[in-house]
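Exercise 7b. Backbone tokens:
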């Protein structure tokens, strides 16, 4: 038996929105890189996201380390897109007073659920 060197594809797939996800999971490349940059080991990342395979996480960390400028550019683009979406949502829905409106709605619902039933 001899050792053969094989190249394997990086376990990344772009979804319909262009978000890079790990293999067939919903876990994003952003998540893996952020956890790694916060000091998490591959094992800790897999423990936190059980749908991941350890070999895939190691492959992605290696890919990130070898292609850091490209991955960082992708992450900056994603951050910009998230900011744009947040601004669009805030312009459509006033975020000020949301908590107060939600608490008032909950209080009304609780009042209604405790009201006596009329027969």
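Sequence design result:
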């Amino acid at each position: 038996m001899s050792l053969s060197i094989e190249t394997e594809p990086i376990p990344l797939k772009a979804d319909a929105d262009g978000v890079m996800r790990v293999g067939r999971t919903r876990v994003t490349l952003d998540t893996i890189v952020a956890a790694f940059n916060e000091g998490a080991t591959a094992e800790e990342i897999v423990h936190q996201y059980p749908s991941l395979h350890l070999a895939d996480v190691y492959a992605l960390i290696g890919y990130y380390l070898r292609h850091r400028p490209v991955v960082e550019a992708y992450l900056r683009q994603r951050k910009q897109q998230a900011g744009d979406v947040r601004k669009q949502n805030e312009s459509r829905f006033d975020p000020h007073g949301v908590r107060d409106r939600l608490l008032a709605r909950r209080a009304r619902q609780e009042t209604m659920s405790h009201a006596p039933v009329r027969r």
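Instructor comment: Helices lie at 29-37, 42-48, 54-66, 68-92, 98-114. The chain has one domain: 12-113.
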